[in-house]
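User: I'll paste a sequence; please echo it back and then give the predicted structure.

Assistant: Echoing your sequence first, then the prediction.
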Amino acid sequence: MWNKKKLGVLLAFLIGTAAVVAGVIKFVPDDRLVVNINAQIVDEKGEAISGKVVVFELTENGPKKIYEGYAHGTATFSVAVKRELVTMYVENGKEMRIYKPVNLQIAVANKELKKLGVVNLAVDPTNEPHPVALKSVKIVMRSVSELKSEPVEGSWSTYKLTPVLSFAVWDDIQARYLYPVGSKLKIESKFRPWGSTTWVSNGYTEVELDSGISSPYLGGKKSYTVHFNLKYKYAITEIEMDDYSFFYENIYAVDTNYDPQHYTRTSAGWDGHLPSGEYYITPAGDTRTIPITGGSNYAFTVSVGFSYPYGVSASLGVTKVPAPQATLVVTSTGSSGYVKTVGSDGFLKSYSNWL
């Protein structure tokens, strides 16, 4: 016999393990995540506007359509994405599960008003509750010019050494860096309607590291810059609306199963100047471990170019997602004094010298 208490427990379990999609309860397996996207769709003046909505997953092989519908003003729609476990570790006695990010693109088009809006964003199942995650996004639709010619639709790839970390050290001071498996980078993406000459920032994608990376201790009146070789896509996408089509270009980083494919480290002389900013002071001979978290702003830029099918290029911003943490370890061999380490952008850039 079911009593009210038992029914309440059953109902709570069902709510916790199911998602409502189009009015139907769908059970979500552990390797999938339902993302409810709350989209605010406006024009350049901030007024609500209607349009055809298309959601793509930005895969290594190019944009893959996973949703299509229509909306006006504010709309909520659901997509199911893969929840792929990368690694597990224990932190402060708690098991941490790290998942690969899923990069999405939301495009909205209005045929009558000739307006288009495109936003890229990442969904990281590591930081989202299972089985349902909620993402909010604002999509600003802007006027586009009439098509004079139709481009070749498709996507093309290139690799680019991308700056991800820089640090400088003085005499008798050494530093090393450690990136664990599952660390993530946040990289700006840019788009433009076909026929436009101006690239516009339209969000970001995330790249997860599939291998751990660490360096030996480095020193000697030098600054060091670490570059990861990452994969980028140039995509020309079509949004069909009856007898009319919108085309747009997009350049963005993609997550693969072997990031970074390779990496390099360059060095240059340093004059020892310590800028202002956040800092740590460490006694001589001791060791300081500093989390590399990244900041709200992009710390680096990378210029990505493609020669085929059209000669295009754009500069994209680069930063880091805070968790899992990468670290910079600073130590010294001096017998007296203090080392001051000044950092910016979540210590993606740092400078260490004696006080």
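Residues 28-144+153-354 form one domain. The radius of gyration is 24 Å.
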